[in-house]
Amino acid sequence: MNTPIDTRQRLLNSARDLLHSRSYGHVGVKEICDMAGVQKGSFYHFFPSKQELTLAVLDEFYLIMKEAVFAQAFRPELSPMQRLSVLMENMYALQKTIKEQSGKTLGCPYGNIASELSTQDEPIRQRLANLFQQMAAALQATLDEAVSKGEIAPCDTAATASAMFAYMEGLMLLAKTRNDPEVIRELGSAMLGIRIETHPTS
User: Fold this and answer.
1) Which of 35, 46, 92, 191 is an S-S bond match for 14, by CB 3.0 to 4.6 Å?
2) Tens-digit pLDDT profile for residues 105-136
3) What's CA 66's distance to the chain center, in Å?
4) Which of these CATH numbers, 1.10.10.60, 3.30.70.3270, 3.40.50.1980, 3.40.50.2300, describes 1-48?
């Protein structure tokens, strides 16, 4: 017997897969319900709107990314810059697995939704901006540690983290456009060399 938690999770799983492989505009509530094996009335019991479901999906993507990509890379036994190198390797491995399973390089789910909805849906834009900031903050903390340990020269770690994150998102978009995850493997190491110098205060 399905519990309410099971039903909600099935809806999240279906929406997550459909939104990542398709787009927000091309996925309807009925399709999500059909894939989840859930009645439409149950959908609105858990999510007042498709927007609310999408916000929940974004949080779900974040948990998956933390477990599958970030947590595996940011291990304390690795040096800070090694962690960033493993991060790129994990991103490549994830996209490679997706390509093998679906035949398509789907890119970053956040980047996909951001490019589609950021100018149309303010709550979703704000949620994406917050999640992007959390990921950039993890990069900055790693860079701060790298500087403190002398692994890299001092730099503007906040700006460098933002630049690294922007490079990663751009790389995901390029891989998706070419339908080739090998782009990430070939170009990913360049992220490690990104530096934004600290501007002297006047």
Assistant:
1) 35
2) 999 999 999 999 999 999 999 999 999 999 99
3) 9
4) 1.10.10.60
| Residue 62 CA, distance from chain mean position | 6
How many whole angstroms separate alpha carbon 67 and alpha carbon 73?
10
CA atoms within 13 A on the CB side of 88: 23
Q: What is the mean pLDDT of residues 146-156?
A: 97
Q: Who contacts 23 (Cβ-Cβ below 8 Å, separation ≥6)?
A: 112, 116
Domain boundaries, the chain: 1-48, 51-193
Say what the pLDDT of residue 201 is.
59
End-to-end CA distance of the chain: 67
H-type alpha helices, 22-102: 29-36, 40-46, 50-65, 71-73, 80-102
CA distance 171 to 187: 8
